[in-house]
Amino acid sequence: MCAVIVTYSNRFGLLKQVIKSCIENEISTIIVVDNNSTSESKEQLVLFEQKYSKVLQVIYLDKILVLLEDTKLGFRGL
User: Fold this and answer.
1) Which of 11, 18, 34, 62 has the largest count of CB atoms under 10 Å?
2) In what order do the strands lie in the sheet with 2-7?
3) How does DSSP classify residue 4?
4) What confidence tier does 44 reach under pLDDT thresholds 50, 70, 90?
5) Residue 38 neighbours by CB under 8 Å, 6+ apart
C-alpha cells in the first residue's frame, strides 16, 4: 500500500502526524509532494526524509502548483 501526501505553507506539525500514522499502519511507500512550503518546514521535512528513508520519498517543488497537479506529480513518483 502507498500514500501520496501534498503539503504546503508551514504545516510540518500536521504532516509529521500523518507520516507517523502511515508508518504505524505499515504503509510501504510514502510520497510527500512539498508544494513550496516554508523553509522551516522544508528543513524539518529533510530530517524526517533521512530518518525514514526506507519508506519516505519527498518531491520538492520551487513553485506552487494548482490543485491536483501536485497530486498527479506524486503519483508519477510511484
Assistant:
1) 34
2) 2-7, 29-35, 56-61
3) E
4) very high
5) 9, 10
